[in-house]
Amino acid sequence: MATTSQPLRGKTTCKKIFWAVFPHACFILSLVIYAFLGALMFSHIEGTREVTVSEEYRTFLHNLTFLARRLSDNVTENDKMFKDDIRELFSTADPVWFISPEDRWNFFGSLFFCCTVFTTVGYGNTYPVTRIGKYLCMLYALFGIPLMFLVLTDMGDILATVLSKSYNEFRKLQTKILASKLCSGSTCSKRNELKSRAQSKIVINEPLTIMEVLRSQSGMKQSLVKYRNVELFEMLIARENENTQPVRNKSMERWSSCPELAREKTMSRVIKNFDKIGKELEKLDVPIVLMVLVIFVYISCAAAILPNWEKNMDFQEAFYFCFITLTTIGFGDTKLEHPKFFLFFSLYIIIGMEIVFIAFKLGQDRLIVLYKKVISFCAEKNMPSKKIYPK
């Protein structure tokens, strides 16, 4: 029987783990599928568009030709004026004029654009040009942004649990180390002896059976009263509770023997897991300085790796780019030359946004506490003082 029960227990534990991980995997998988579908859609719409020469582009080429001729005629004269004119001319240029749609809107470029849309980063160097592409971009963001925030909240619960448990374990270890330093050898040995004596005095007796209670009551007339009616009643209730315990095991066997009922019970647990999203994040209480330190270390690691394939960036520029990305500001002043490689960094972006999201949540909680203290202090100041009248 033991050999047959072990595989069954292994299967049940695997099922429990699967249904516990299922909600989190469902959110992440749906976000990945949503990104891939958006990449296919935008690469088909924007990548296959016809390139037409607009009137603005023709005007730009005409002015550029005029400036080039003026420079050839007067090579040394009015050098500063020429630089100002050429700078003003190129400020009016549209980057779309100099980019091939097939190169910019391939699958990886479109996937990078979709990631910047539902993460609300929006660098500005890639954007839809066609009218249908703009309409679909608005519709895509309308459903993608809530899905992204749902993934952030769900994964934020996991990170909040890990951070809170790690911080609590660190505090426990810190208190143990401080206690061992403050406590001397003689006092610690005395405290341990007292604890061992106190623990040795505590004896947990199992509840007696009815026959043992009746046998113990046979010598009541000859000796002092050993058990009173209240004690006898409590023993009987404890014994009755023990007798009712196997009935619960039978009900559990009934759950396991009936697959339909067990499936309904499992599905109810999965639904409850969906309802618990965001609860652990609300319970998180760690110092804000610790979260700032985690963000600094997290961005520094990426800033040290990113210049390996982005040659136009150094450590400081990469640190600035990662901070602007994770905070979803996305100015677009620092551009990526190889977005294909950065797509493999998408997991880093999602986890980093979760860490920043947790830090913002902690900062928001601290600001609320500060506002409450300020308001209560101002209210106490404005309260009229009680006047004491003489009798």
From TrEMBL:
Cellular compartment(s): Membrane
Official protein name in the record: KCNKI protein
Family per record: Belongs to the two pore domain potassium channel (TC 1.A.1.8) family.
Domain of life from the UniProt record: Eukaryota
Keyword Transcription regulation applies: no
Residue stretches spanning the membrane: 17-42, 105-123, 135-153, 286-306, 318-336, 342-363
Organism encoding this protein: Illadopsis cleaveri
Entry keyword Ion transport: yes
